[in-house]
């Protein structure tokens, strides 16, 4: 291995050596503990230390770094206390997740490290968001993110690199090409010569770096970081290296040819550098022993601290209390000045007034800038707020959700417009796995609102008509709002934006231009988890939300003899079950109408809760009415048949007569 010292001082050379030695020795210790059954799982980065250490050393402490599962050297180079790392791996209190997540699945704002989620790819888009925040604040900073070569096959990789390039974000994308993704060799993973060949397609600079040569890694990355700080832009790096152990310890390396192992063993980043430093007279044999003893003592002392800590315990209340970031709801009253406007206008007004309130609120979505979005809700926004805050995105829902997560990590607020709620499936993974879980896992909030133009009745067929709220109400960590009226839409949207937690905000397209209301012109908020009783009656209770509320009222108007309580739920997570219970205790009959197909929807849960809590008060079985269990059909008559309006009328009459 050839080393070029360049202008590096002896101190720096020694520092690089020691920084590589520490993760290696920690790993060797962990392998012993694993064999003794004292830790559960280990993903080894032995042989890849030069990459973690070299990249981290080239960054400034205030610059974010997003490691993967083989980057222990990132954590040690950032001086994360070893006892905290060891406690983290044992699921103990001094770790970073209160025992809620394992291994390297955590982040820490203190050390500007954002750890991975198991799904690998979303990290790359998160880096985009962090870098975007730095760029918007004109901070000349680099964000470095790691990926294995295996995860470059995920769509997230393509999406994140494309976004970074189109937006010219200062991200250093670091591929650690270590030959295998679990057991899959590179030739079965991709079909280009080098992975950096892809950079050309993204219009991005790139470099290949010998990942086992610490001086090459550190010097080149250092130079590139300086260049990026001067002129922000993304750069793709491919570090050539090798995975010297199994994917994780239990999976072994039988599928790796012996000669490859031998070849790469000769390239070990630490022993080679050690020999070089000895030859150069920078390091002496006694010094090596002394350093090893020092690290060994540090490891043992910190291991004792971790082992002495008790196993984590918790309570239902504490665990439930940590899913969401605490939100101190501030009520802003409606004023008396109103304007008769449509649902779309109310959404637009809420967005505009919130953009005025928060300088660091960013809206992102497809065609939302000068075009104003397909529903024209952000029309005129670029003139008022500029294209930096009202951002057109490429078609890449996953990377944009991840980028919104990154904005939040770096202290900004984000709103995403899904062009149609149906397309959220392409951004599903980071919503349910990153945004939803991040607060519970390591206390980071996801200050993101995802706007969801949804719903059927508009002749738009199976892919532009779904109402998919149940995909999200099922996932702890998300909030879900689903207003039925313009004034609710505005007040709830303002609250969603104030709330530091991720909110899925459903807007029914069928209501956009058909429902008018006198909406207060000022900035006001409405609380989540408070249903609205639209009509009061004693015969029965109707509970619904979104378009269902309007269908229920329309049908009830046809039957004035039915004296019903009509409850508009307004938010589904949190859900105001108390208002439903109180009504059922009064009327003794409940019918729940939802536009979603019936199975596994909100109606089923409300029904179950009412059975559990109000059984003695019921005079009839709870009725649920929803759409047919089919995709949403296109033709008018088929769609009418699919939707629950007619079935609701029949069920309502049946319940009334019961
Ligand atoms: C979306 C997803 N698919 C599959 C896996 C299972 N898995 C975890 S790591 C891994 C291999 C990753 O290979 P690579 O990106 O090259 O990183 P390496 O482990 O080699 O460092 C696989 C298949 C996963 N965690 N997430």
3D structure, described in words:
- The chain has a seven-stranded mixed β-sheet, with helices on both faces.
- Helix 8 links the parallel strand 6 and strand 7.
- It has 25 helices and 21 strands.
- It is α/β, with parallel strands linked by helices and 658 residues long.
- The protein binds thiamine diphosphate (TPP).
Task: List its salient traits.
single chain, 658 residues, alpha/beta, seven-stranded mixed sheet, five-stranded parallel sheet, 25 helices, 42% helix, 15% strand, binds thiamine diphosphate
Summarize the structure.
It contains 25 helices and 21 strands. It is α/β, with parallel strands linked by helices and 658 residues long.
Number of helices: 25
Got a strand count? Answer: 21
Helicity range = 40-55%
Mean pLDDT: 98
Helix and strand arrangement:
Elements: H1 10-35, H2 49-58, E1 65-66, H3 72-77, H4 82-89, H5 122-136, E2 143-148, H6 155-167, E3 171-177, E4 180-181, E5 184-185, H7 197-202, E6 205-210, H8 214-230, E7 235-240, H9 258-265, H10 269-280, H11 285-308, H12 316-321, E8 338-342, H13 343-357, E9 361-365, H14 381-385, E10 390-392, H15 397-409, E11 413-417, H16 428-435, H17 438-442, E12 448-454, H18 470-473, E13 479-481, H19 486-498, E14 503-508, H20 509-512, E15 516-520, E16 532-535, E17 540-544, H21 547-558, E18 564-568, E19 571-573, H22 577-587, E20 590-597, H23 602-614, E21 623-627, H24 636-642, H25 645-657
Parallel strand pairs: 1-2, 2-3, 3-7, 6-7, 9-10, 9-11, 11-12, 12-14, 13-14, 17-18, 17-20, 20-21
Antiparallel strand pairs: 4-5, 8-15, 13-19, 16-18
The structure holds thiamine diphosphate (TPP).
Thiamine diphosphate is lined by residues 70, 118-120, 148-151, 178, 180-182, 243, 247.
